[in-house]
Amino acid sequence: MDLITAIGLVAAFCTTISFVPQALKTIRTKETSGISLSMYSLFTVGTLLWLIFGVMSLNLPIIAANFITLIFATVILAYKIKYK
Fold this sequence. Notes:
There is one protein chain. The protein is mostly helical and 84 residues long. The chain has a single domain (3-82), classed as Monooxygenase (Up-down Bundle), CATH 1.20.1280.290. It is built from four helices and no strands. It has helices at residues 3-17, 20-29, 37-57, 60-82. It is elongated and about 45 Å long.
């Protein structure tokens, strides 16, 4: 693995893992009043597009980060819509 890929994977890990506390809190409490529906909608679409870009460019750090982040973002968005 080259240095650029390693840096990308560490960056992907850091930014992706940052969603875990929010996702766990949202799942536990079902409290979403502090979360913007429009922001999370746009963020989720953007993450999906980054995932598609990563797949099309065969970029492992982008694929890994955005696949996992998309799962967390979708869960939070679903809770935001369900528990308005």
